[in-house]
Amino acid sequence: MNNVTGINIARFILLLLTQVVICNQINFLGYINPYIYIIFIFLFPIREERLVLLLVSFLLGMFVDMFSDSGGVHAAAAVSLAYVRPILLKSAFGMLYEHQSIKFSNTDMGSLISYISLGTLIHHLILFSLEIFNISNILLILQKTLFSSIFTIILSVLIIILFSRNKK
Length: 168
Fold this sequence. Notes:
Blueprint: H1 3-21, H2 39-43, H3 50-68, H4 73-93, H5 95-98, H6 109-132, H7 138-164
Helix pairs in contact: 1-3, 3-4, 4-6, 6-7
């Protein structure tokens, strides 16, 4: 087991525990919940096999579902995010992604925020669409998506900056 694998296992466990123990208890105004476990999918190594990311994302979502008693919506949203991740990376980082040379610890802040924002919005829209699963509640789906996404984006960017940036 190399260093990158160990870091990813620790990140998986730490984000899962933080999500289940702390973030699942937050329910501000009835529709603002942070889902920081998706940071794992965002920071998963780019050179790693895509199938591994899809499988690990499924496991992560399934564990969150088991602890949240949410019937598989997190697993579906996490796998969907992992599936569209290459498109998000290409749109946010361009040629850095093409050359497989993205290092999240020293990327442009604007690119990082756009990557996290797009991914979070996609994840949350799928999550809340499956959770509510009623087209007549489209406004509630959009409201929960928007407000939870804002909160998740802020927390995710702060966590990534605190734990991934090079110390100068």
